[in-house]
Hints:
The complex is a heterodimer of chains A (79) and B (648).
Chain A: H1 3-17, H2 39-53, H3 59-63, H4 68-78
Chain B: H1 11-15, H2 27-35, H3 42-50, H4 56-71, E1 80-88, H5 95-105, E2 108-114, H6 120-125, H7 130-133, E3 138-142, H8 157-182, E4 185-189, H9 210-226, E5 231-233, H10 235-242, H11 244-247, H12 250-256, H13 265-279, E6 286-289, H14 300-307, H15 315-332, E7 336-342, H16 345-354, E8 365-371, H17 375-386, E9 393-396, H18 400-409, H19 425-431, H20 442-450, H21 468-473, E10 476-481, H22 488-497, H23 510-518, E11 522-531, E12 534-548, E13 551-559, H24 568-582, E14 587-592, H25 604-607, E15 611-615, E16 621-626, E17 636-640
Parallel strand pairs in B: 1-2, 1-3, 3-4, 4-5, 6-7, 6-9, 7-8, 10-17, 13-14
Antiparallel strand pairs in B: 10-11, 11-12, 12-13, 14-16, 15-16
Domain Carrier (chain A): 1-79
Protein name (chain A): Acyl carrier protein
Pfam family, one (chain A): PP-binding
Amino acid sequence: MEKAEVYSKLTAVFQDVFDEDDLTLTPHTTADDVDGWDSLSHIRLVLAVSKAFGVKFSASEIGGLKNVGEFADLIEKKA
Amino acid sequence: MLPKKGTAVSAELYRELAWLPKPPSDFSIRCKELANGSGGAVGKKIRALATHALDEQQLSRLGRTIRSLQLGGVSLAPLAPFRLGLIGNGTLDLIVPVLVGTAARHGIALECITGAYDQFLQDALQPDSLLNKARPDAVLLALDHRGLSLQICPGNEQLATEAVDAAIGLLDSIRASISRNSGALCILQTLAAPPEALFGSFDRALAGTSRNLVDRVNQKISQAVLQSTDMLLDVAGIAETVGLADWHSPAQWNLAKLPFADALVPLYAEHVARIIGAMRGKSRRVLVLDLDNTVWGGVIGDDGMEGIQIAQGDATGEAHLAVQQLALTLRARGIVLAVSSKNTDSIARRPFKEHPDMLLKEEHVAVFQANWNDKATNIRAIAKELALGLDSFVFLDDNPVERGLIRQEIPEVAVPELETDPASYARTLAAAGYFEAINFSEEDRARAEMYQANARRLSLQGQATDLKSYLRSLEMRIVFGPFDRTTRARVTQLINKSNQFNLTTRRYTESQVEQLEADDSVMTLHARLIDKFGDNGIICVIICSATRNDTWTIDSWLMSCRVLGRCVEQAVLAEIVLRARAAGITTLEGIYLPTDRNEMVREHYGKLGFTRLDDGTDGSSRWQLRTDVELEDLPMTVQREEKQFEPA
């Protein structure tokens, strides 16, 4: 899957999970940049991404992520 | 034969809540509109939106929308408020918004109070805990095998007994504390056994294995419920239905301590909401059955007693018998049965009276409405007669058009989606859980009898439902063409099979039909109807012969009863008139020849604006219409197969 496609799909998932239509993503986006990105919505996010892209993540893969860029790289590798 | 796409009678029926219609494509827009609280009637709109096969993300979204409306003090009436305490082990916070969204489907405005993560004992035991102070109406004890700390001890009966007693003791003390500290009832969960076996099949028999401990705990939980006013949520049963391997997700447990797979939260929430709905008297009490292709296979008016499929040993017949069997067992536990069928009353009752394979008899049916009025009008009449609210009704019908009509006209009535294969009907109706009950008494058993099931027939009063807007929403397209090689077989079949909507019941062989095609003095016409649910195929056959220079006599007019009440008659008449005008014909003549089956079309021509010429002693009649009549506006688009005929 192309990186641009990953970002466009990922942005839609973020917008849905955080109920925020104007939300945009960059590779440097972290939890601090998004309102309401707490540990619970983080789980919702991972589950929603997993469903949207049809991929599964292990706990260690998710635990090691530093920002949206790394998340997108991981998805690109799997999808 | 290839398997039909989307046949959902296995685990996906339950996982995807497939008895509910698919979610609208503008789901998120509708959520946003609700959040803005615009337009009023918010409670009704929420319930309508919740009554779709929403997935966990959509339900979560809807639940969060409801929560924000509740916090904003918006009235959610007619949804009934309910406070549910939720304690247990693992991450339960993700379940909460899904529960709130699902409860709306059952007429409940749910508010959830959760305790701190894995602090369920403190939540229950401390009188001033957040949970107890909130005075919940009920508390759901969402504990699984991990939460009850069942330590396996293979082969050690004594330790096994102690482990089971300890687990039940823990549950008992939680229940007693909640009752003392908040006065709430508890909903107890059975445990879903983890699929990992230690020895293999022997696990079930050997004391102290995980499977053995779970079985024994579940047995005791069931007994505890019977001996108290607490309620049961049979998680073990739900998980077994969809499969334990799907229920338990090791990855999601590791990732986020989800007690079971997130894809199954909608099903879990649906079961919780059914119990809450049952506590608040929201369970359904009446089952309204369609007859043709629902209670039996085929169309009684056309196929006759010998033609309908209802016998044991016939695959289709057995599928419909399963529907009858389920209806009867529901009746035995107090569900009232009614019939709504588009049929002539005497014809529809005949199988109930005379067919040896019918399980359902007239005495099982409280109200029996077989007529040609729309079903919304009939269901309203049944509700009035039984003095029961429309929100206690379930309507089972194989026809998507009838289902769509009831959903639009009477949204309070529950209408399960059905696959085309009748083998799925009984299972789908049962899976929908409309008749959830939290206990069962002698009064329940006798309730159906109390409604004096004597197959009453009600006369319909007042205005029929205004159908025009619904008909427009069906996106109907009618396609006309003359008989030809490709349609000849189906046309001949209809000519020889149609009994009810058939003005003259004249039968022609295929070679006679072929001769008609070639005859210049004859106008042949067939009509095909397509709507948003699919292609109904050829549903109307017309034969007109020129009996004078300026006159066509309608030799045959027959239609499939499946498309009645959809303005097809008007569309067909308009087409005949246009073609007559183009041929220089000024007068149409209609004939009605009575048989013991076609009473329903006795006044057909009168209803279409024809003038009665005379009546025969045999009950026949002749009618006339000038072709310069003004034609009605039709709720469908019209197409023609032949290019050369395009009326101005």
